[in-house]
């Protein structure tokens, strides 16, 4: 891994300590999604961190199947891609973008219900820009000419003119904490907050 690669720059800010390699079959994932591959920074992110949450404010999605047979997984790549494409079709896509809704694939979602994806109309996955549907933004759609790892690094460093997401929890966050989805589930099930390591005061409570 190059020291100046986007994923190396992100690792310098966000520790991969609680990451887990997803061990993705990238050839199968590309075939499932109808693309030649996925961006190198995203593949490196999956190998280093895997899918999971950042400070319980942002989720990075794994490239699970589109769910054509059994329905998409809610909140996963298939479900969020469906949301991104439907929103595009209903309200129109980003200004000045010639791509159609079916060229968008989601890779992340914020706690503010923003959906982040790629525009995949370029044959080179590493040239795919990041597209954001910001729920409370005006305009809702924004396109950034770099990849997902660089987007996250700039978010944490505050290197946008303003916060690009509806929720500012991770804006200018000097030490974001990533937890892989499997570890997150294990810790919640054991009664601990997966991000702080502290006991969850609501664990085991039953609500009427």
Describe the structure in your own words.
The chain is of the alpha+beta class. Helices cover 27% and strands 14% of the residues. It has helices at residues 6-11, 26-33, 40-48, 77-91, 148-157, 181-189; strands at residues 52-54, 58-60, 104-110, 115-119, 130-133, 141-144, 178-180. The chain has a 7-stranded antiparallel sheet with strand order 6-5-4-3-2-1-7. InterPro entries: Knr4/Smi1-like_sf. This is SMI1/KNR4 family protein.
How would you name the oligomeric state of the polypeptide chains in this document? single chain
Q: How many strand elements?
A: 7
Largest sheet: 7 strands, antiparallel
What strand order characterises the main sheet? 6-5-4-3-2-1-7
Q: Give the uncertain stretches in residue-range form.
A: 67-74
Mean pLDDT: 90
Class based on secondary structure composition and strand pairing: alpha+beta
* Straight-line distance between termini: 52 Å
C-alpha Rg, in Å? 17 Å
DSSP strand content:
5-15%
Total number of helices: 6
How are the SSEs placed, and which strands pair?
Blueprint: H1 6-11, H2 26-33, H3 40-48, E1 52-54, E2 58-60, H4 77-91, E3 104-110, E4 115-119, E5 130-133, E6 141-144, H5 148-157, E7 178-180, H6 181-189
Antiparallel strand pairs: 1-2, 1-7, 2-3, 3-4, 4-5, 5-6
Protein name: SMI1/KNR4 family protein
Organism: Streptomyces amakusaensis
InterPro entries: Knr4/Smi1-like_sf
């Amino acid at each position: 891994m190059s020291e100046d690669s986007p994923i190396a720059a992100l690792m310098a800010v966000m520790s991969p300590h609680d990451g887990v390699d997803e061990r993705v079959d990238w050839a199968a994932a590309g075939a499932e999604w109808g693309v030649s591959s996925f961006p190198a920074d995203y593949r490196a992110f999956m190998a280093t961190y895997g899918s999971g949450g950042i400070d319980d404010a942002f989720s990075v999605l794994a490239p699970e199947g589109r769910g054509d047979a059994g329905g998409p997984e809610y909140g996963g790549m298939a479900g969020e891609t469906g949301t991104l494409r439907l929103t595009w079709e209903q309200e129109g896509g980003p200004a000045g973008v010639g791509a159609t809704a079916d060229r968008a694939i989601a890779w992340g979602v914020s706690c503010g219900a923003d959906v982040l994806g790629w525009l995949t109309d370029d044959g080179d996955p590493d040239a795919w820009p990041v597209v954001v549907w910001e729920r409370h933004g005006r305009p809702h759609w924004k396109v950034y000419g770099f990849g997902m790892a660089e987007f996250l690094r700039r978010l944490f460093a505050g290197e946008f003119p303003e916060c690009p997401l509806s929720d500012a929890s991770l804006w200018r966050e000097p030490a974001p904490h990533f937890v892989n989805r499997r570890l997150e589930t294990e810790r919640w099930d054991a009664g601990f907050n997966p991000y702080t390591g502290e006991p969850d005061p609501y664990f085991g409570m039953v609500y009427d």
